[in-house]
Design a protein that fits this description.
By secondary structure, this protein is α+β, with helices and mostly antiparallel strands. It has 3 domains: 13-265, 2-Layer Sandwich (Nucleotidyltransferase, domain 5), CATH 3.30.420.40; 267-326 and 430-497, Nucleotidyltransferase, domain 5 (2-Layer Sandwich); 331-425 and 505-545, Up-down Bundle (Methane Monooxygenase Hydroxylase, Chain G, domain 1). Helices cover 39% and strands 17% of the residues. The strands form 6 sheets. The chain has a 6-stranded mixed beta sheet with strand order 3-2-1-6-13-12, sandwiched between helices. A 6-stranded mixed beta sheet has the order 16-17-15-14-20-21, with helices on both faces. A 3-stranded antiparallel beta sheet has the order 4-5-8. Strand 10 and strand 11 form a beta hairpin. Helix 15 (406-427) packs across helix 16 (445-455) and helix 16 packs across helix 19 (506-525).
């Protein structure tokens, strides 16, 4: 890619479109560049999903805690997803009214001269900034940063990673001209514009009330001298930029198609999944690779906890933000417990597939009773970030005996996800009156019942398959004038797709009330154990290196 930087002043060149007045422009493409896959999803202007093309995402992890991804490969995978969508939809190039992009949150994607990558992106999974997070969290300035951003420090965030790079990899930052996020990088390749959105800029370097950068937050991270790396903030529900000629030839669309920079994937998935539908007391949980638990509130009603944890993430609705707590790992815990069987059976040459084992989960849950074990779902090598931040936190079973079978382990893991969900919502205030669920794990009715009982609230599952791409596409639909407001778009794109409420089983909920107390008390008691284990791991690592 050899595009020159484009100034935000170029926004006057935005292609305007009164979408519903043009019969030929009847498709909006939503790009969702996730950790697992990169998706291109086509919707009609009323929100009906037409087709999807997915490309597996690729990233690398290492024993040093790094998790990195090629910027160039990410763009090429995005190109292939859009071109693949074009093979499924006749005249996609002629019919595309707009394209919107969202993607995996946090992380650091550095670009330099001629918008070339400086190095592979540091992903949200990257744990290398842990010592910097610990140091910054103890500084006198951290509370000021938290009160501006509403967001606790963790190793996932670009602010923490830039601060760590500044100390240990300063040459990278000296060579860089801009620090982007995943979706920002793809947007740059589509439009030539260096920019980010109010959500990611706000929870990392900004103030969630003003949706602008906050100098006190930047100062608290020790990044005043790197301020020039932060790109301008644009709101994609208001402003679009045209697809460049070079990008148009690559993706197979027409030059000038309006491109919307969506908000971070957490916000887009929640928007598409129903976090904000006008009702009070509703919330949205995404149970995917990570667990994301969100409630939509007015910015003046945000509760800032004493522990400085969680996120406050803007929605593309004036003065409405999501208060968020995120578990580092959710279904990754399920993947781990299933992989135990696969690894064991491989020795006999007849290992089942992951999909086959997923199909057995409901059966295993039906064979067991609730509340027999405690499982803390901190399986990530990066520890935990919500509702507490501890890079040393690790998963554990408590209460095992010879009477427990594999099915009991599976139930304990799923119940651990429910307890973690409750832990997060408790940190944000009262438990929600209703939870809208998204994510792969929620396809299981038995899993949904465990989650409902864990938070003592009915759950609904949206019929929307691709909530993240839909949320981004909704922003584009408003930006091009297909809807007069986001509220009007939600009324047609989101509300009709919410399924019937599934009530929590009261007897199970009573058991989980007691289980949660044990879960919370035991995870607090494990803190010194995690620290000692971390020291032991470091010692073994030093010995191996010598």
């Amino acid at each position: 890619m050899m595009r020159q930087p484009t100034a935000i002043a170029g926004a006057s060149d935005v292609v305007s479109l009164q979408a519903r007045s043009s019969g030929s422009k009847d498709i909006i493409i939503g790009i969702d560049a996730g950790t697992s896959v990169i998706k291109a999803v086509a919707f009609d202007l009323s929100g009906q999903q037409i087709a999807i093309e997915s490309i597996p995402n690729r990233y690398r992890t290492s024993a040093d805690g790094s998790a990195t991804q090629s910027l160039s490969q990410t763009w090429q995978d995005c190109v292939q997803a859009i071109k693949g969508l074009g093979l499924k939809i006749e005249r996609l190039d002629q019919r595309t009214a707009a394209l919107a992009v969202t993607g995996q949150g946090d992380g650091t994607w550095l670009a330099g001269k001629d918008n070339q990558p400086i190095t592979d992106a540091w992903l949200w999974l990257d744990a290398r900034a842990a010592p910097t997070v610990e140091k910054l969290s103890q500084s006198a300035e951290n509370r000021k940063r938290f009160e501006a951003t509403g967001t606790g420090l963790n190793t996932c965030q670009q602010g923490s990673q830039l601060a760590h790079m500044d100390q240990y990899y300063p040459d990278l930052l000296s060579e860089a001209e801009v620090a982007l996020h995943c979706k920002d990088w793809i947007f740059l390749n589509l439009t030539g514009v260096r920019a980010t959105d109010p959500s990611e800029a706000g929870f990392t370097f900004g103030n969630f009330r003003s949706r602008q950068y906050d100098e006190a937050a930047i100062h608290a991270l020790g990044l005043d001298h790197r301020r020039h790396l932060l790109p301008p903030i644009i709101d994609g529900s208001v402003t679009t930029f045209p697809l460049t000629q070079e990008a148009a030839s690559e993706v197979g669309l027409l030059q000038g198609v309006p491109i919307t920079l969506g908000y971070v994937d957490m916000a887009m998935t929640a928007l598409g999944g129903g976090v904000y539908t006008g009702g009070k007391g509703s919330a949205c949980s995404t149970v995917g690779s990570t667990g994301v638990h969100m409630r939509a509130v007015h910015s003046s009603n945000v509760i800032l906890n004493a522990e400085c944890t969680g996120y406050v993430i803007a929605l593309p609705i004036p003065d409405i933000v999501t208060q968020v707590q995120t578990n580092m790992a959710a279904t990754l815990n399920i993947d781990w417990v299933l992989q135990i069987v696969i690894n064991a059976m491989q020795a006999f040459g007849r290992a089942p597939t992951h999909a086959e084992l997923v199909g057995k989960i409901d059966e295993w849950l039906g064979q067991t009773s609730p509340g027999n074990l405690i499982y803390h779902p901190y399986i990530s090598d990066a520890g935990e970030r919500g509702p507490f931040v501890n890079a040393s936190a690790r998963a554990s079973f408590i209460g095992l005996s010879m009477n427990h079978a594999y099915a009991d382990l599976v139930r304990a893991v799923v119940e651990g996800l429910g307890m973690a969900m409750r832990d997060c919502y408790t940190m944000m205030g009262d438990l929600p009156q209703e939870v809208r669920l998204t994510g792969g794990a929620t396809r299981s009715r038995a899993v949904r019942q465990i989650l409902a009982a864990s938070v003592k609230a009915p759950v609904r599952v949206s019929k929307r398959d691709e909530a993240g791409a839909a949320g981004a596409a909704m922003m584009a639909a408003v930006a091009i004038g297909a809807y007069p407001s986001m509220d009007a778009c939600i009324e047609e794109w989101v509300s009709p797709l919410l399924g019937e409420a599934e009530a929590a089983n009261q007897s199970t909920a009573e058991i989980y009330d007691q289980l949660y107390t044990i879960y919370r008390d035991s995870r607090q008691g494990l803190v010194p154990v995690w620290a000692k284990l971390s020291e032991l791991r470091d010692f073994h690592s030093d010995v191996r290196q010598k």
